[in-house]
Amino acid sequence: MENSEKIIIEETICWDSEDLFAIGIQIRTFGGMLHSEAEELVQLDTGYDGELLLPYKLYQDLALYQWEYPEEYWPVGKTVSGEIIELILAKGQVLIPRWNIALEVFIETFEGNEELLLGRSFIRKFKVLLDGPGNKVCLIDSSATWREM
Amino acid sequence: MTITTKIPKDLEARFKREVEQLYGAGGTAKALERAIELWLRETRDEMVARERKLNNEAFRRLQPELGKYQGRYVLIAHGRLQGVGDSIESLRNLAPDAHHRLVFKAGELPPRKRRLGWRIRRK
């Protein structure tokens, strides 16, 4: 990633998570559009192997079709039940406000999707602690390359 | 905004009946507001779809010559190459009036297959 810098983060940050395992993020386009005003808890889903899956309506509201990849690069997704779905692909940023960092990510969606998920390719950038008994999710640090917000 | 216009009588009667049922008295403004929002969204979607098709056709046409931009970001809008930059942000202000733009890193090959997990299904 050009213009990026590696930041060593020693502080561990945690989010309360009684039911779902989720972390607090914002989503920003390269045009500067932001979702949402403050951090929003987004579920970590180890069943999805992409970086960020957006609800179709949010993809449109953020005008991510202004940052879209050519159709030749759109991935084909397969659900657990074997359903095949063509995904739309764009690039944007995930912000972790409490760490003051922004990560460039591939964003995927499809018409009718209502789920907002962070997948395995995103999770793999960090050390993540899923603390069941403590009812929390923590990001410990990462070897990922990112830039300051 | 104040607009005075005439609409067909049967349409007016159907509209009044549905508004009354859904929102009660005074619901006309609410219904019109929703209608305008829907029209704007539909129009935007049509424009995006039209330009998406045009831009993807341009991408296929330009593909043989994109190798020379390897590792750089390319922007296609209005059916033609608009610019090439070293970062995605550097292309931000190109073709600002376009409804749809293709922006990608030349030579980058994103994964073509995705496992969507148990939460995802087509609605």
Name a few traits of the molecule.
A: mainly beta, Cathepsin D, subunit A, domain 1, 6-stranded mixed β-barrel, 3-stranded antiparallel β-sheet, 2 helices, B: 123 residues, alpha+beta
Explain the overall architecture:
The complex is a heterodimer of chains A (149) and B (123). Chain A has a six-stranded mixed β-barrel with strand order 2-3-9-4-8-7. Chain A has a single domain, classed as Cathepsin D, subunit A, domain 1 (Beta Barrel), CATH 2.40.70.10. In chain A, a hairpin with a 4-residue loop joins strand 7 and strand 8. By secondary structure, chain A is mostly beta strands. Chain A has helices at 56-61, 120-123, and strands at 13-16, 22-28, 34-44, 52-53, 76-79, 84-86, 88-96, 101-109, 117-118, 128-131, 136-139, 147-148. Chain A has two helices and twelve strands. Chain B is an alpha+beta fold and 123 residues long. Chain B has one domain. Chain B is built from two helices and four strands. Chain B has helices at 9-23, 28-62, and strands at 73-77, 80-85, 101-105, 113-117. Chain B has a three-stranded antiparallel sheet with strand order 2-1-3. The relative contact order of chain B is 0.10. The model of chain B has no long low-confidence stretch (mean pLDDT 93). The chains are: A mainly beta (149), B alpha+beta (123). Chains A and B meet through strand 5 and strand 8 of A and helix 2, strand 3 and strand 4 of B.
